[in-house]
Amino acid sequence: MNGTAPDRSRERHGVDRIAGLRDRLGIAYGGDYNPEQWPQEVWDEDVRLMKEAGVCLVSVGIFSWASVEPRPGRYDFGWLDQVMDRLADGGVAACLATMTASPPPWLTARHPEILTVRADGRTISPGGRQHYCPSSPVYREHAVRLAEQVAARYAGHPALAIWHVGNEYGNVVPCHCEASAQAFRRWLEDRYGSVEGLNDAWSTSFWSQRYGSFSEVLPPRSPAPFPNPAHDLDYARFTSDELLACYLAEKAVLQDITPDVPVTTNFPPSLRPVDLWTWAPHVDAVAYDAYPDPADTGAAAKAAFTYDVMRSLRGGQPWLLMEQAPGAVNWRPRNAAKPPGVMRLWSWQAVAHGADAVMFFQWRQSRGGAEKFHSAMVPHAGPSSRIFSEVRELGRELAAARALAGARAPGADVAVVLDWPSWWALEGDAHPSSHLRFLDAAWACHRPLYDAGVACDVVAPDADLAGYRLVVVPNLYLASADAGGNLERYVEGGGTLVMSFFSGIVDPCDRVHLGGYPAPFRRALGLRVEEFAPPAAGEPVALSEGSGSVWAEEVVPEGAETIVSFTGGALAGRPAVTRHRFGRGTAWYLATRPDPATMRRLFDRIRREAGVEPVLPGLPEGVQARARRTADGLRHIVLNHGPAEAAVELPAPMRDELSGAGPLTTLRLAAGDVALLRPA
Amino acid sequence: MNGTAPDRSRERHGVDRIAGLRDRLGIAYGGDYNPEQWPQEVWDEDVRLMKEAGVCLVSVGIFSWASVEPRPGRYDFGWLDQVMDRLADGGVAACLATMTASPPPWLTARHPEILTVRADGRTISPGGRQHYCPSSPVYREHAVRLAEQVAARYAGHPALAIWHVGNEYGNVVPCHCEASAQAFRRWLEDRYGSVEGLNDAWSTSFWSQRYGSFSEVLPPRSPAPFPNPAHDLDYARFTSDELLACYLAEKAVLQDITPDVPVTTNFPPSLRPVDLWTWAPHVDAVAYDAYPDPADTGAAAKAAFTYDVMRSLRGGQPWLLMEQAPGAVNWRPRNAAKPPGVMRLWSWQAVAHGADAVMFFQWRQSRGGAEKFHSAMVPHAGPSSRIFSEVRELGRELAAARALAGARAPGADVAVVLDWPSWWALEGDAHPSSHLRFLDAAWACHRPLYDAGVACDVVAPDADLAGYRLVVVPNLYLASADAGGNLERYVEGGGTLVMSFFSGIVDPCDRVHLGGYPAPFRRALGLRVEEFAPPAAGEPVALSEGSGSVWAEEVVPEGAETIVSFTGGALAGRPAVTRHRFGRGTAWYLATRPDPATMRRLFDRIRREAGVEPVLPGLPEGVQARARRTADGLRHIVLNHGPAEAAVELPAPMRDELSGAGPLTTLRLAAGDVALLRPA
Amino acid sequence: MNGTAPDRSRERHGVDRIAGLRDRLGIAYGGDYNPEQWPQEVWDEDVRLMKEAGVCLVSVGIFSWASVEPRPGRYDFGWLDQVMDRLADGGVAACLATMTASPPPWLTARHPEILTVRADGRTISPGGRQHYCPSSPVYREHAVRLAEQVAARYAGHPALAIWHVGNEYGNVVPCHCEASAQAFRRWLEDRYGSVEGLNDAWSTSFWSQRYGSFSEVLPPRSPAPFPNPAHDLDYARFTSDELLACYLAEKAVLQDITPDVPVTTNFPPSLRPVDLWTWAPHVDAVAYDAYPDPADTGAAAKAAFTYDVMRSLRGGQPWLLMEQAPGAVNWRPRNAAKPPGVMRLWSWQAVAHGADAVMFFQWRQSRGGAEKFHSAMVPHAGPSSRIFSEVRELGRELAAARALAGARAPGADVAVVLDWPSWWALEGDAHPSSHLRFLDAAWACHRPLYDAGVACDVVAPDADLAGYRLVVVPNLYLASADAGGNLERYVEGGGTLVMSFFSGIVDPCDRVHLGGYPAPFRRALGLRVEEFAPPAAGEPVALSEGSGSVWAEEVVPEGAETIVSFTGGALAGRPAVTRHRFGRGTAWYLATRPDPATMRRLFDRIRREAGVEPVLPGLPEGVQARARRTADGLRHIVLNHGPAEAAVELPAPMRDELSGAGPLTTLRLAAGDVALLRPA
């Protein structure tokens, strides 16, 4: 429908422009480097300490716009030339930024119209960062011009290894200004062709919202409750596409000037803002900024899901952990420190999930500004510090693990379905319950697999599922008829499906699939849902096995057998968890969210019935293992996230490349310790 | 004082234009009907299912503005002609809307100045509904023109039974735009005559707020705390009056064109926003949208109070339950489903309290838009569903109860006083406690009467109280000297009064009645209140009997006897509940809010002393009974709101017209069941 | 650096213009008097009741602008002449306001540009008070003109005793309008000289914030998170200075016209908004509005700290309790009443801490307006009321205590360090924990001293500390190198220092002192802090003695000995409380906030080791004592804040001037009672 919309194919990943980087650096190690915050005398110490720490890649210039273009059109690259030369001399490669993430004061003073306008009409003032409207022609023109200057200046520089476009695009606050309104109208016209198409897609016969022309359409600027949900949903799609257009405009310039240098941008910690299925084809490698909370006991499990997303975005291609914190961050209400060893453990977890880079924000802790309490590789206390010691030690380990670079994971048996428009629509207004969050649903399903040591991919609803033994569909509220057919065929052909409640409710325009929920999946699931009956927040739902929360609904079986029942209230005796043999496969349905222990039992049963095995058998509680297949055979990375030493019985004798121990048949891992195993 | 202010008389209820509707429909049954959301093929099924369900009245076109006037001044009534004809053919009457509730995109695009401006300056953007300024001349002109077109088109149409003006006016967000400012100044000039009058009324000598002219007055647009309370109070009055003026302008057009067709508008679920004493004289029948929360165990008791308000607004005239939900709604954080039978039970509760219509939002559940998860008579699952079965069954029952239509309740012995300006002023800023809510106070007093099976009317403070044995005054913060005299004369003449704390504090301009609280009632109550000492939110107040909450104060008896005392803190030993013989009557005073059990004991004692009896004697806990007097004698509607079967000993043998059982001397009602009793 | 910035010297307190007031009034007694709210007949009763109550000073006209200048440039002083004459005749002195706190409607209607604009762009509408931009030239011009008129009118009037400029300046909401932006740029240019200086001070190399010229600088108008902290900090400094400039402009006019009349302004209840070290040199006496919450069991202890601030602001000079409430206030969510006797007890507490005036808001309780539920000396109930009885009794007592007027406290042995820029910066965004509040830290340290009966001064970080045995530094986040040196020299010279965590972190531009926290204090403390590890809000921190909360960090001793250790988590075994002998002194450090009982034990030990003794030995729990040195010798004021009678063993026989009892060796004080002791 949309001629200009980005290509959503996950298959067209283009040339492997990233191979050169891999060959040059192995597992890349380093961090954001902001030398403009420091006097020149510090730069020499920087390069010396980088070498000491094994740093081979630094991201330079992400917020340097005002430093390299201090006045409109007047460039000052002198200082950066020195920095790039020093890096090259020191053998450190540069992930060089286009520097366009934060427009300088001179630009916003001359063009206040580029500032982001929030939904309620308040303008975001300069003074923070990323305060630009992605649809602003003025912003785009200035940004592209800068990217061009930077590319021209450093094309061929020996330090230049990869381009870093913008910064965490998804963190840009959605803009609702006049330029956005105009761009949104063009986007809609592209998507729907005619105003009749728009009216149909947005169900505007409701509440007298029928448009006479595209010119009457506005961004969703705080209407009286409740807003048109299709309007909100399309604005989320549009915002993602507009940010991508900013990225692509800069990328085009870079590729013109330096066709062989790979290009990427760092995806922000929150997965939600932009549709990464549409973005991933346009980066040469997925780059991600990960900030698990050390105070969250479930942090490693949640990170595992996120890293599975990153590895899956480009079909298993190794990705770059572009940022993480060596210790505490500074932007939570309470910023917990990482206890000794956790930085190493979590870095290796990313590698276990397919990362080819372990990088930090940032190299040297800022003295001033809003992020001065964000930890860094070189802390305020200087290199004589616990953090820098751990940084140095980790650099040594990763350099020794060079063979892992480029190694892919063996094929996973399990896929978890993720779709951004469904996520956005699920969390909209005026639903049966306002407590539904996609990530909660995804974590609830991913966690029992993580605990069982099972490897998972993450896929789009219309992906080819043929290779998977088990497909898990958490809360896929929005589903096209095509997605319905895809999943139905998967089950029919012999697959095992687990779907959680409130899935398949609406089409891509947020219009209900009529005739009994969840219409596109009813045949495969063998049931019909007639009414929703969500409990209050935190209220338990009585079940015949364990207890549920968050949701309950009236399920009418149409072939499915009941595995767990509701046992209280108006739903007592009705199905809560069902199983349905369909074609050659099996489809499970969860009409509530069982408690974690019940989920663990259920998923253990389901995956066993589906023939899904863990990466390593018999892993103790809290120990995670993942595999990567190197040119020289399989490697297992084993991580002890638990609080005590654990013993892992190995299926065959192995050696630990980190400790040098082996051959081992029992691996003993201290709390927080890591092993890199190869066959003995 | 105000020449143009609406007439507040509750007596002038005009001709009974509603009689024809009653004769035609009996207890009207149906719901909102929005055919423009569906293709024509569905329309035929609609009428067929309506007949199957016993539907005889549907509200058509409430949000059809954009559909009937798709461009300025260009009308398209073709589709609606077809709908109206189909309804007429199917024997379904139309409650036809003037369609002015939600201005279409073309209007707000051409005239953004009609959009509501919130107190803090943020404009409500189109995209929801009811986003208009009621004082906007542009909005009013367009709305009246549309009403005129609709009336001219359907005058004399056989389906047309009653006009439905606008929609839930009270839900329109108060506007603070320039047009509002100008209208407010005119309203003030009308009310106060001179700026000296305004200054006096608003106590502007405080904080240097004295106005030099009306032109200096603004709407209360988020001043620094704390705002002038008289300013806020008058803005609430003004907002109510401006919305009423919108209604009246459309009504005038309708009455010109179709003088015999009754006119009404549906009052919104929240009673608070507009002063219904001023509105009620201008509707031919009170129409109300009721949405009790199925998750609230006190929902039926609260609904009983609200329905008493509705029945009382026009002196006992039967009212129309214009909207309710067949199941869940979609606008709460958590939307509980109605368990089987609750829709029927609550529908009959409305009839028991005097409703002559049982209608729903809406006929067919929307496929798209903001309310698609609001339940409907025909749900997404279609007519083969529990909900539609119950809808059909209820239609059958109500059709058989035709004789109830028009029947009034026998005179009640108890009146509860309700006054909108007092409510608004009570909940303003900068009071001794910010935790006071009028509805909490009203419910606290109404509940023990409801539990005892006692019928209540609701009256204005200046109503004729002569017919009542007991008058209950919850938290009447604002009271005119006239109201004081009215209540004093009532007691003096032999009545029993119960007044709860923080009553009679200020005059209609929110100025304190000096000389000891509550000055206008001190003589009747026989006491003086010297200081307020509210506890913290949720903190109990120790009493000699039970415990209190929300409030405490220092009462100095001046003739009153102490029935319950405070027993803790600085007030220990002082009166918490008092009784005073005054003239031939008795006045009780509550200086705190006793717990429900204590309230029940107190009110049982008070009403017995006052000679007030329940509708039926000896009702078990949870069973409610109300009576209506038909042409053919008294009918009792008995409702079991409890969780188990209940047995009611009847004072005389009766028959149950719903079950056909009888003659009975003991009525056995299952949980959730209803009986319609007539003398055997 | 800043040529126009106010003089911060605490020493230059100018001539003692206040002596005349003291001689005329003794301990001044009275309240705010707003006769314009009442008809003339009330004025006569007012003066009669004032005399009856011993009132000798009233604050007149604080919000009278609209009454004395009802139209632009047209003055009506007639009514005020009458009031002033009546006061003079009645022997009541006037603290006469310049009346500029609340611009009248005619001014804001003509000049809406003077209205305060909030950080998010919303304008504060008229209707409350203090809705002006302090940088507005229009506001300043009108305010100064009014002050001039008032001064000219009442120069030499016999009632005039002292000028009251504006009202609670610190309560004016910070403004972000264009006039503010221009003034801010001038202020910055003054402070930093060049844009390079600004860029350096604000660390603008971070996030591309480098300014090309001052004209690009804006107020911090809600930037995207997180804002530049140095920008925010300077805006707080600027706001304080701009408000002070308003005060000084009016003061200059008053001093021109009435050079002998003292001038002051009342500091608002919240200490935080303006830097009182910069303000204090410009008032002839510190005046303070105190509103402890009667519902807060710690109210008296917190008030003690605040009163210590007030007494210390001008080096021990007696201060004026300009406002307090006789009973409840009206602006809290729940406004507790003062039980009988509390008004007297808390009034005497202020006197014990050096107050020379006991005044109230307000004389007569308003009938209308936003503060009508604020208690007053003459309540709504009139003079026949508990409150007025207590007012009269207190007036009698204070008149008898005339000798205390002007008496200073004996020198304190303890000083607590307070610095406003540090306070503001501490509570900014993006810190290791967002739960840090300066006052919590100050109270935590002051409370054990208060409980022990020890008198404290409050000092700036660069004050001369030579006279103190113990200096307490709570959470001095921001510290200049000078302050570091000052405190280091203090310890070296033999002093005892107690410093709590997260002190000495940044310089006055909010830039980290590098090289290990807290760099400026490391030598004196004998330690280095490497990382912060704050617990969650409310989470306890395990200690070897008691438990901590709010904070934890990794302390590396460099000479300090560990007194208390952490015993849980990653910090187990590391120091939580340390002591370091440095030079001839001792420095203690608290790396968490120990619970109150542990703090009490620690501080008792520390002060004993430092040789600090309580004001009176052996005070029972809940009994407070403070001393003032009159011309006729020392007086002790002893206050029983506890709930039961207490017996105080006196070190020598004394007489109680209030009860007349004595000579006593044991003083028995009822709950809430006060004694004024002199040597027998």
UniProtKB/TrEMBL annotation, chains A, B, C:
Residue ranges annotated for the Beta-galactosidase trimerisation domain, each copy included: 412-612
Record: active site: E168, E323
First-tier enzyme category under EC: hydrolase
Domain Glycoside hydrolase family 42 N-terminal: 32-399
Binding site for Zn(2+): C133, C175, C177
One Pfam match: Glyco_hydro_42
Keywords: Glycosidase, Hydrolase, Metal-binding, Zinc
Enzyme Commission numbers on file: 3.2.1.23
GO BP term, pick one: carbohydrate metabolic process
GO cellular component: beta-galactosidase complex
Positions that bind substrate: R129, N167, W331
Gene Ontology MF terms: beta-galactosidase activity; metal ion binding
CDD domains: A4_beta-galactosidase_middle_domain
Catalytic activity from the UniProt record: Hydrolysis of terminal non-reducing beta-D-galactose residues in beta-D-galactosides
Protein family (similarity comment): Belongs to the glycosyl hydrolase 42 family.
Protein name (database record): Beta-galactosidase
